[in-house]
Prior knowledge:
By secondary structure, the protein is of the alpha/beta class.
Amino acid sequence: MRIALAALALALAASTTSPTLAQEPSAETLASVRDRAPTDEVIYFVLPDRFANGDASNDLGGYEADRLKSGYDPTHKGFYHGGDLKGLTEKLDYIQGMGVTAIWFAPIFKNKPVQGDFSKPETVSAGYHGYWVTDFTQIDPHFGTNAEFEAFVDAAHARGMKVYMDIITNHTADVINYAEGEYAYRSKGAYPYSTRYGPDGERINPGFNGDQDSSEANWARLVNPDYAYSPVVSEAERDIKVPIWLNDPIYYHNRGDSEWWGESALYGDFAGLDDLFTEHPRVVEGMIEIFGSWIDRFGIDGFRIDTVKHVNPQFWQAFVPAMLERAEAAGIPNFHIFGEVYWAGPQPGGLHQYTIRDRMPAVLDFTFQAAVQEVVAKSASPEVLYEMLRGDILYAQGEETALQNPTFLGNHDMGRFSMFVKQANPDADNDELLKRVMLGNAMMLTLRGVPTIYYGDEQGFVSDGNDQLARENMFPSRVDAYNDNDLLGTDATTAGDNYDTQHPLYRLIKGLSAVRLANPALKTGRHTLGTFDREPGLFSLTRTDPESGQRVLLAFNTSREEITRDIEIAYDVTGVQALVGPCAAGIAAPGSVTMTLPAFGYAACELTDGEDD
C-alpha cells in the first residue's frame, strides 16, 4: 500500500522538468489536474510583487516615475518592489521542486496604485498586495498582462499544477468620498434608507422596503444614496472602475468606516475601502459575472475569497453555487473555493458557521494555525490540538469539510510562524527555534486539511511583525526592515536571492510533501484521536483512509526533552512501517506500540495487519 520513496523521488524529478514558458498543457495532463480533489494538493501562497522580478520594464506599471503615482519604491515596505507574473512563471521549477501542487497568489487585478492621506506621508502606501481593485477584468500592469497570466496558467497546468486566484467581492479601491468630510460609521437605525441624514430628514427612496427584501422591484426604489452621507467622486476618478456599473455610488453602503463589530462589520468601509452593497441584486449578478469570466477565460482551479465575514450570508448563498456551476460547465469539477474568515483562537465553533449558514465549501483554518501556535510556539499542552480536532464535527459536512480547509502556520496579514516561535521563546538558540518551526511544518503536512506554505517560510524568513513587516522579498531586497532580520537555518539575508533548494526547511517541506502525496491516509484519512500529555510532550492520533483502508499513526513531541511513550493502536495491527521519523520496529503488544521521540521530534508510521505483512 505504501509507495516507495525512491520511486516517488524519481517521479517528482520527472515532473519538474521545465516545459517552455509558452507551453500549453496536453489534454491528458489537464485532465489529470482537473481530476484531483482539493485534498490532493499542497498549496504555495505567494505575493507576486515580492517573489521574482522577471520584467523590469513593468516596475512602474506604465505610470510616470513618481513613487506617489506609480507606487514603485523598492526601498519602502509598503510600495511595489517589481515582482511580476513573468518572474513567477520563471520560478516554477523552484516552487514545484518542494512538492507544491497548487499555487495561490494574492490578487493581481488592476489596483489603484497609491492610497492614503497625501498630507500625511506616513499614511500613504501602494496597492502591491492587490486588495485595492479598480478594474476587475484585467491584470495590474505592475504584474504584467492578461496574456502573461494566460501563459502562467498554461505553464502551471503543463506541469500538473493548479492555480488558485485570490478574489474580493466585499470592496473596491477607495474612490468614494463624503461631502461632509466625516467617515465615522452611521448605523441603519440612526440613518435609515428612507430619509436624508436621519429620521427627521427629507424623505427619499419612497417604497424601498429595506435591504432584506431581495426582489428587483424593491431595489428599483433605492435611487438616492444620500441616506447616511453624501457620496462624491472626483472628476478624475469618475469612471476609473471596471466594469462601468461599479462607478455608481448607489451600489455601495456609504455608511462610513467599519468599527469591526456588529452591524458595521458588514456595512462599514474596510479601512476606508468602498464597501459594496452586496445585498443589492445588481451587485450579486455583477460579481458572479466578473469572477465567472476568469474561470471561462483562463480555466483556473479555485478561489480564495477575501473578507468573507464582512459580507452578508445571502450573497455567499448565491455566489458560491454560481461559481461551482460555472466551473463545472467549464470542465473543472474539483474547483476549490475557500473563504478567509479571520478568526482568533483555537477553540472550535468560530469558523464552522460560515460553512453552514454562508455555505462556504471550506475556510482558511485559523483555528489550526492558532492551535499549532499555542502548542509549538507557546508550549501549551497538546490538548489544545486535541480539542481543536474534536471540533471538526461542527463543520457543515463534519470531517469531510475539515479535510478541505487549507491549513497554515502564518501569512501576509498576521505574520510568520517563525516570528511567533521566536517571540514566545526569547532565550532559545537558533537550533531550538528551527526545530520548533520544523515541528510546526510536520504537523501541517501530516494532519488533516490542505497544507498551505507561505512563500519565504521555506527559506527561514522571520518577520518583525504583521502586514507590511511580513511581506519580504525573495529577490534582493532594499528594505532595511527586512534586511536586518536573522533568518533561520541559513546565514543568508533578504538582501540577496533566497531560492536555496538546499535550505533545511525547503528540504523538509519537499520530503514531507512527497510522503503526504504518496499516502492516501495523509490526504483523506479520518482521525482517531489518541494520547496527549498535559504538559509539553506527546500528541498522537491515527489517520485512516476510508477507501484504501491505509492507517498511519502520527506522533509528535512538543517538549525540549526526548520522550518514550506506550501509545494505543488498534488491536488488529501486527506491523509498523516507517514513513517518516523514528517509528517502532514493531508492536509492543496487541493494542500498543512503544515509541521514542527526540526533542521536537515527530513520526508517521504505517500500521499494518496480517494481510499487509
